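TA notes, week 10

Several of you asked for a full example with nothing omitted. So below is the full record: C-alpha cells for the whole chain, then the designed sequence directly under it. When grading your own attempts, check the secondary structure regions first.
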C-alpha cells in the first residue's frame, strides 16, 4: 500500500544542494565538484527524472549538438548523469525503475534510495554502489524547488 502522505511529500521538483560519495575507509569525494548542480522530479502519476552535473563543464568547440571530438564527448559523459523512469515507495526507500539513462548499464535496473525529509529538504542515500572501481555510498541533499 502506498503511503499517500509520503508520496505527497516526495512529489515535486527538487534542486541539488549537495552530492558526495563516501568509500569504505570514510574518504569523501565530490564526483561533480562541491558546486554540482542537478534536479530531481517526482510526478503524481509515478514517474521520476534525475540529472546531475558538474557546474564547470567545458563547452564543445562546435555548436552542433551532434558534433564534438571523441575527447569532448568522453569528458561530457564524465561530468553528467541523467536517468528517468517510474518510481515506487517501499517503506523508507524510493525505488527508481530506470527506463532511460546516460549510463546504459542502468537501463532496466532498479536503483534504491533511502530517504528522509528535513523541513523542505530531501535526503537520499544509496546502498553501496560501484563507483571508481570500489564500493561507495552516495549522499544527496535536495531542496524543494519553488518558483517565486
Amino acid at each position: 500500500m502506498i503511503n499517500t502522505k509520503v508520496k505527497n511529500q516526495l512529489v515535486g521538483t527538487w534542486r541539488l544542494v549537495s552530492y558526495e560519495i563516501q568509500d569504505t575507509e570514510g574518504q569523501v569525494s565530490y564526483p561533480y565538484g562541491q558546486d554540482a548542480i542537478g534536479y530531481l522530479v517526482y510526478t503524481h502519476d509515478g514517474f521520476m527524472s534525475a540529472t546531475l552535473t558538474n557546474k564547470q563543464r567545458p563547452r564543445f568547440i562546435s555548436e552542433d549538438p551532434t558534433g564534438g571530438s571523441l575527447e569532448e564527448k568522453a569528458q561530457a559523459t564524465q561530468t553528467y548523469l541523467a536517468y528517468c523512469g517510474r518510481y515506487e515507495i517501499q517503506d523508507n526507500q524510493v525505488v527508481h525503475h530506470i527506463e532511460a539513462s546516460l549510463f546504459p548499464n542502468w537501463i532496466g535496473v532498479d536503483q534504491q534510495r533511502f530517504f528522509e525529509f528535513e523541513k523542505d529538504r530531501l535526503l537520499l542515500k544509496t546502498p553501496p554502489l560501484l563507483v571508481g572501481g570500489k564500493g561507495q555510498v552516495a549522499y544527496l541533499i535536495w531542496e524543494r524547488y519553488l518558483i517565486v
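The first helix runs from residue 4 to 10. Use that as a sanity check on your answer.
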